[in-house]
Design a protein that fits this description.
With about 230 residues, the protein is of the alpha/beta class. It contains 8 helices and 8 strands. The chain binds zinc ion.
Length: about 230
């Protein structure tokens, strides 16, 4: 049995990013998927969340997604957890998995997940979509943290959530698949140079992608030198 078949991957969010990410991970042969999401399916989700149909409206997203995954990929063990992953639960939940995919909406929760993964030394694939731009990045143990790139969450009124801003379903599909690709690269043994990560940005309007090299910052307030207790 390959390492991929034995890998347990945690996907936080069973919506616009989590649906395409789990599709690609299951298709590639990941052995076990844990899905976390506190929300229920809403009619406005249906255009970009492929596991959910009109008959699922009102049902927990994780139950709807796990059901469809089990039907299409019976060999993948899927565990649905209807909960919001917070800083208190994250360490034990993350430690039980080879890798975490952050497929959540909203900005603030992404720092909670990325901080917890960095401290637990569990790799996390960050991802986000806003308007016509999407991005994905693998954060590896010992590499840069999310705050080396973005110093901290923006003010809550500065960045609308996807539901507020409107998101093209196709762009969410592309970014979810990009996240799955980064996860599969890592699980397959690919590693970034020490202390580095690569931010992948996809501009949906220009239909153009670019890569940005991200280095661990000595003056990062979270993981930088002077905060050795965390490293
Ligand atoms: Zn940092």
């Amino acid at each position: 049995m390959s390492a991929l078949h034995q890998a347990r991957v945690l996907v936080v969010g069973a919506g616009g990013l989590g649906c395409p990410a789990t599709l690609q991970l299951a298709r590639a042969g990941v052995g076990a998927l844990t899905l976390c999401d506190p929300d229920r399916v809403e009619p406005s989700n249906l255009h970009r969340q492929l596991w959910h149909g009109p008959g699922d409206v009102g049902r927990p997203k994780v139950v709807s997604a796990a059901e469809k995954l089990a039907r299409v990929f019976p060999r993948v063990a899927v565990t649905p957890l209807q909960l919001r992953v917070d800083a208190a639960q994250a360490p034990s939940l993350f430690a039980d998995h080879a890798l975490v995919v952050d497929a959540t909406d909203g900005v603030e929760g992404k720092f909670v997940l990325a901080d917890a993964a960095w401290l637990a030394r569990v790799p996390l694939v960050h991802g986000g979509v806003l308007r016509m731009q999407g991005q994905a990045m693998l954060l590896s143990p010992g590499g840069p943290c999310l705050r080396c790139l973005f110093e901290g969450p923006p003010a809550l009124d500065e960045v609308p959530t996807c539901a507020q801003a409107g998101v093209l379903g196709t762009l969410a599909g592309i970014v979810g698949a990009m996240q799955a690709g980064l996860a599969l690269d890592y699980l397959g043994g690919q590693r970034a140079p020490a202390g580095e990560a690569e931010l992948r940005v996809f501009d949906g309007a220009a239909f153009r992608g670019r890569k940005v090299r991200v280095r661990r910052r000595a003056d990062c307030g979270f993981c930088g030198l002077g905060t050795e207790a965390r490293a």
